[in-house]
Amino acid sequence: MTMQFNDETFRGDYTYRNSPEAIRRFPFPFDRDSYAYSVNIEQHPGGPKGSPFEHMFDVDEHYVAEMRDREITLAEDPLRCQSLPHMELAGWDLLELIMVSKARDYPDLFSLTRAGNDWHWINRPMGIDKRFIFLDAATLPYGPMEYITRQTQGDFALLHERDGNLWMDAGMVTSQADWSLDFDVGMNFFEWHAPVPKARQMGVFDKALKFLLAVGQGQHYRRLNWTMTVNPRLDTSPENYHKWGPEKRTITPENVGHKQFLRVELQTFFRLPRSHALAFPIRCYLASLDDLVTQPKWARRLHRVLRDIDPDLADYKGFAVNRDVIVNHLSQFDDGAPTSPGIFPED
């Protein structure tokens, strides 16, 4: 295998780290020096070679450790993976999409051989060699959605379309930014977005739903979303708020650089072929302030965005209590120079 995987943790001693290459390919979410809600949807995949946008499903140095962390979370709380009975076919659609994509995009890591419904899947980083019958759940150790999402970075929601709306009727969610699959399962698009401040009044969700309902077969899209997290913890769920919530009060001027993380979600959308469900993968990337300020453009821009953001959004994004400490820290890296458009660091 050409890719090297980190031995790291996302809880306890928090040994998570980004290599210099991982920092440079980080999906920095701000394309200008200010932030406001937008639908910001574009075609996926597509982007510079080596970027997280190059392939359908990005695999990086954190892959094996993230799958280990998912296994821990599921052992503690099996309800992080749920699928209503009518969603099994969507699970098979998702399994096919991921296996075909990974085998094509990372042939040294994954392979898939198909002879009719007799499939042979090899996942080399996780040491998996499995033969099974496609559409026969009895030949897998878990349901199809759970089986493949235990091997794929990011959270997954499978959305069923009916009555002119999208309903979250299945999902695998272990690295979420303070929302609960167990609470949201069975809700429609507007119900699960209800906690987001101001966006409904601005018409953002009406536009987004209209767009998503029009996504057809073979069309794939993405958008970036972001929030802030203290410590590199993947599982910031409401169920475990008692574990990570108090960590917000541990930030000081001395430790903010390595304890405060920008949490970015690469959200993608795929219309599935048999079920007509919409797959909604949400891949989480974490970078500390120390990581981000190694790129001068990002250091200047992040300071300006967080300094000028609406206070209600700072609260919703999870950093209002530490905003002053963060902004003061970042100000030393902002020399007032102009920044270029776009999200990528300067060459």
Automatic annotation (TrEMBL):
It comes from the Bacteria. InterPro entries: HODM_asu-like. Pfam families: HODM_asu-like (PF11927). This is DUF3445 domain-containing protein. It comes from Roseicyclus elongatus DSM 19469.
